[in-house]
Amino acid sequence: MLSASFFLHLFNIIFMWLKTSTLLRGIRILLLLIGLYHSTFAQNLNGYSITVSPESITAIKFNSTIMDYQWSDPSGYTCIARNNDNTLLIKTLNDHPQPTNLIVSEGKRTHNFIIVFIPKVNINETKLYHDFSDLKKLKKIAQESVETGNAIAKQEQKKEEEKEKLSSKEQKQLEKEQKAKALEAEKKKKEEAAERERLAAEQQRQIEKLKQEEAAEKQRQQAAEEEQQRIAAAKKQAAEEERLKREKARADSLAKEQQRLEAEREKQRQLAAEKEAKRKAAAEAEAARIKKLQDEKAAAAAAAKEKQRLEAERQKKLAEEKEQARQEQIRQKELAALKEQQRKEEEKQKRLAKIAEEKRKKEEEERLKKEAEAKKTSYTHQELWKKYPHIVFGDPPPSQHLTGEYYLPADTLENSRVSNALLQMDYWLNIASPTVNGVTMTLQSMIFSGVNCYLRITIKNNTDNDFLTGVMNLKWKRDNGVSIDLYPGYVTDFPVILPHKEKTLVYVSRAVNASNKDHFVFSIIDRLEKTHLELSISGKEYNTEMIR
Predict the structure, then answer these.
(1) Are 120 and 50 in contact (CB under 8 A)?
(2) pLDDT digits (tens, 9 = 90+) for 150-187
(3) Whose C-alpha in 146, 249, 406, 532 is 20 to 30 A from the C-alpha of 336?
(4) CA-CA distance, 278 to 255, in Å (whole number)?
């Protein structure tokens, strides 16, 4: 049995022969060979039609790595073989290319496709994507296309027979034209290969430059964060020292006041003692004088005088007791006043301590609340419903345009898988929008999978209010002045971004056949329609990422 490598080698020989022979004769032989090949290998496609449009990208996904591909007429088309997902991307080189054949070798299989050109498609609704990665399905499709391939071979044979009727002069002219086309196509292919190598080198240089800039930026940010932490620690320590200083001054003041009161009380006691001593001295002097006068009086009056003396002593004792009682009353009043003052001072200190403790607790609660707010990155569903009761965050914004595949489970699953993989990658782009109302968005990376383009967008909210992500759109602005909206077929999230926070999302749209002179504008309007953000992507950047 003939092997797949034998047929592939034979196809290559035929293509070399095409450069010196007529195109239709070569196609006839190729189709006959492919018919023979199908009788041996049932998973090879023969005569399967692939639709191509000048604006869109046509993608063909295979089960194995693409080994080679060849065009019957390469003047109107080009291909990009993507090894990461075994996908072949087909793009037109002009607005009206002629139908042709494309032979692709992947794994142990070789396929012949008929490339059919249509001038216009709805990019957002027409998915030019062919998935042949399932070998069981591929076998079924291949069996169905065998008859189609045989019919094409018969038609080409009939055309070849009609062509042989042409004069010898006409045949030579036609062969000359075909040879010129083949040489031109070969030259163009070499130029495209050189351009791809140049773009790859430029892309690598840009990646290295971005990595160096990112490393420097990280160092600057780390130094700034360390300086902020040092300043915060110094402020905290200064505040603590000031608090301790105030508390020490207050304690020293209270101690001095207590010492003054104690000294004042001691002074009062000393004055009372001195007064009592003076009083006693005066009383004793007065008693001695009276006694002397009484002794000098006549003895006849001794009894009366004795009586008077006894009365005087009694009155003296009463006076002394009265004075002592008065002095004791004064002392008790002073002691009670001192105790009352001490009680009031103690109550004052307790109130001040209580106020200080309440203030400390309040400051601690506010600090913890601020820390919790700083760590918070998103609202719960209940918080969103309570804060924005008229907005349904589970659905896209009401005025958001979507492609037909947005709600298809199979497409949603695949887009979700690729988007999550993109979010896990390191990003290599840094295309930022102007800052509008304190909000900025940045295109961090772009990849292509299947027939879709995946944009990784980060939105940074540097305001004190929420940013409610709303309607998104990617507009393709062609060099000829025509603008085409590329609506999303999938969006990972329409996030609510808290103040001074950022969120990253992935926007998925159709991949298109852009030129390097075209450019793209990605836009977001918040749900409250107060902030409109835009960033621009050049056609050259778009095409560079497509062949990454």
Answers:
(1) no
(2) 666 566 666 666 655 655 667 777 778 878 887 888 88
(3) 249
(4) 35
- The Cα–Cα gap between 240 and 244 comes to 6
Please provide the size of the chain in residues. 548
Backbone angle region of 438, left / alpha / beta, with phi > 0 → left and psi within -120 to 50 → alpha: left
542 and 454 in contact (C-beta within 8 Å)?
Answer: no
Q: Are 119 and 95 in contact (CB under 8 A)?
A: yes
What is the rounded CA–CA span in Å between residue 114 and residue 34? Answer: 13
Q: Which two tokens stand for residue 317?
A: 């004792």
Tokens of 274: 């001195």
Q: Which residues are 91's β-sheet partners? A: 78
* 431, 508 Cβ separation under 8 angstroms: no
Measured CA to CA, the distance from residue 398 to residue 471 in angstroms comes to 8
Estimate to the nearest angstrom the gap between the alpha carbon of 479 and the chain centroid: 33
Give the orientation angle of helix 4-18 with respect to helix 23-40, to 10 degrees.
Answer: 180
**Residue at 38: amino acid letter:** H
Angle among Cα 174, 50, 487 to the nearest 5 degrees reads 125
In 3D space, the residue among 443, 448, 441 whose CA is nearest the CA of residue 427 turns out to be 443
Question: Rounded to whole angstroms, how far apart are CA atoms 21 and 264?
Answer: 130
Q: Which of 106, 89, 129 is nearest to 44 (CA)?
A: 106
d(CA 120, CA 103): 25
Task: Please state, in angstroms and rounded to a whole number, the distance separating the CA atoms of residues 205 and 216.
Answer: 17
Q: Is 367 exposed, middle or buried (0-12, 13-18, 19+ CB in 10 A)?
A: exposed
The SS3 call for residue 467 is strand
Classify 406 as helix, strand or coil: coil
Q: How far is CA 473 from the centre of its chain?
A: 19
pLDDT, one tens digit per residue, over 437-491 is 999 999 999 999 999 999 999 999 999 999 999 999 999 999 999 999 999 999 9
Report the amino acid identity of residue 152: I
What are the DSSP E strand ranges found in 499-538? Answer: 501-510, 519-526, 532-538
Looking from the CA of 451 toward its CB, the CA atoms found within 13 Å total 27
- Report the C-alpha gap between 418 and 445 in whole angstroms: 13
